TrEMBL record:
Keyword Transferase: yes
GO biological process: carboxylic acid metabolic process
Gene Ontology MF, one: aromatic-L-amino-acid decarboxylase activity
Modified residues (N6-(pyridoxal phosphate)lysine): 282
Organism of provenance: Streptomyces actinomycinicus
Cofactor(s) listed: pyridoxal 5'-phosphate
InterPro entries, alphabetized: PyrdxlP-dep_de-COase (IPR002129), PyrdxlP-dep_Trfase (IPR015424), PyrdxlP-dep_Trfase_major (IPR015421), PyrdxlP-dep_Trfase_small (IPR015422)
Protein name: Aminotransferase class V-fold PLP-dependent enzyme
Keyword annotations of the record: Aminotransferase, Decarboxylase, Lyase, Pyridoxal phosphate, Transferase
Family as reported in the entry's similarity comment: Belongs to the group II decarboxylase family.
Length: 452
């Protein structure tokens, strides 16, 4: 029996070429069978189609058509973020050039747990991560799987910087991963400051910081998950300085505004943070995963140092081989930095900024359409690219039914968010190719799914 070919090595490219054609054909066939942003039939229908395509998971004899069959099934049953009617979450359509770069990373399969497994990838990661950190006004950055890992790292560094404990203070709209990180790290229960208008109020935060014993870590947000709101960062930074508190800013969503000349001023104050979460699989159009944690004080990363003789022996490090174990909580890591580096160099800051400007403009256009529609209610004008709206005079149960009906029929993918004590439909615009008529069509679908 002949052995299956490998993706890398001398024969790798020739082995991959026909398989790429198979994958691309299967993606196209699956998308055609889906026929919209989401498969119709809900969870039961999707599960049945997947089970039919999968059959025997581990057959005695392999199926040479498995690649086409399963890729087609996955595409048919996917929520397609490149469809303009798929606008529920911070789930972006990835750029073609970034996806192509990700193929190279998979084929070469370097692992960033030691230099001898990833010579070029480790050098690339160091240079690109540092550049992105400096774009945010900080000094260095670690590559992560996304906002959750970045927030956990930020709390870990704060804990270690303060001798083993720190009190987290955050707003009610802070990402759930912060509270989870405090629990995982054995920190006190977070102090949650009420945010009646969706963002941290400096006066209320001042009262909380005055009443609490230290050490304190304030977590501000630049782009809340529910509504895309940005806390008043300069004022919060000033309060942290006055109270001797450490500042972390979760800019997983809003960090992409840094690329835009038009919108980057909304992130004024970011440079005052000790740590900043960035996430380029949101406003960066990267395939998952593409997160970073930027740090102002690189020496604090010493808290992450570990020693394993087979990965970073002292004599190897002294001889000049880079030590990578202190660059992550993970050991085996794929080179997610490659797709980021390719995107930055291909598009440049102005190219990425144009994409940011485009989706922000689409959100404003959509908000105007909602505002002018007699049967719909707008929550507020968008700050980034998220719009909350609902059928006028509908109760929360009706709003929930409208969303689920669209999902069940596979016609549109909208999120849900609770604000001002009511449930809202959430449209998050991350597709720069969305057109004005797509926005109007989305509203017609909502209108048509609303009970009379």
């Amino acid at each position: 029996m002949s052995l299956p070919p490998l993706a890398s090595g001398p024969g790798g490219p020739d082995a991959l070429r026909p398989l790429l054609d198979t994958v691309l054909d299967a993606l196209a066939a699956g998308a055609a069978r889906r026929g919209g942003p989401l498969p119709a039939g809900g969870p039961d229908g999707v599960a049945a189609r997947v089970a039919d395509a999968l059959g025997d998971v581990l057959p005695d004899t392999g199926d040479p058509d498995a690649l086409h069959t399963l890729v087609q099934a996955l595409a048919e049953g996917a929520a397609d973020p490149a469809d303009p009617l798929c606008a529920a979450h911070l789930h972006c359509p990835p750029l073609a050039v970034a996806t192509a770069a990700d193929l190279a990373a998979s084929a070469l399969n370097p692992s960033l747990d030691s230099w001898d497994q990833s010579p070029a990838a480790s050098a690339l990661e160091a240079a690109v991560a540092r550049t992105l950190a400096r774009t945010a006004g900080l000094a260095d950055a670690l590559v992560t799987t996304g906002g959750t890992e970045s927030n956990q790292l930020a709390l870990l560094l704060a804990r270690e910087a303060h001798g083993g404990t720190v009190q987290l203070v955050c707003g009610a709209g802070a990402h759930h991963s912060l509270a989870r990180a405090a629990w995982l790290l054995g920190l006190p229960e977070p102090v949650v400051v009420p945010t009646p208008h969706g963002t941290l109020d400096p006066a209320t935060l001042h009262e909380a910081l005055t009443a609490l014993p230290g050490p304190l870590l304030v977590a501000a947000t630049a782009g809340t998950t529910d509504a895309g709101l940005i806390d008043p960062l300069p004022e919060i930074a000033g309060l942290c300085t006055a109270h001797g508190a450490r500042l972390h800013i979760d800019a997983a969503y809003g960090g992409g505004l840094l690329f835009s000349d038009r919108h980057r001023d909304r992130l004024a104050g970011l440079e005052a943070a000790h740590t900043v979460t960035l996430d380029l699989h949101k406003l960066g159009w990267q395939p998952v995963a593409a997160g970073l944690l930027a740090v102002a004080r690189p020496h604090e990363l010493a808290a992450l140092r570990q020693r394993a003789d087979y990965l970073n022996a002292d004599d190897d490090t002294e001889a000049g081989l880079p030590d990578l174990l202190g660059r992550s909580l993970r050991t085996t890591r794929r080179p997610d930095i490659l797709k980021i580096a390719v995107t930055l160099k291909t598009l440049g800051r102005s190219g990425l900024g144009a994409l940011v400007d485009q989706v922000c403009a689409r959100a404003r256009e959509f908000a105007s359409l909602v505002q002018d529609h007699p049967g719909l209610e707008l929550h507020a004008r968008p700050v980034i690219s998220t719009v909350l709206f609902r059928p006028a005079d509908a109760d929360d149960a009706t709003v929930a039914v409208v969303r689920r009906r669209l999902l069940q029929e596979g016609r549109a993918v909208l999120g849900r968010a609770r604000a001002d004590g009511r449930l809202w439909l959430k449209a998050t615009f991350l597709n720069p190719h969305a057109r004005p008529d797509d926005l109007a069509h989305l509203l017609k679908l909502v209108e048509g799914s609303t009970p009379a």
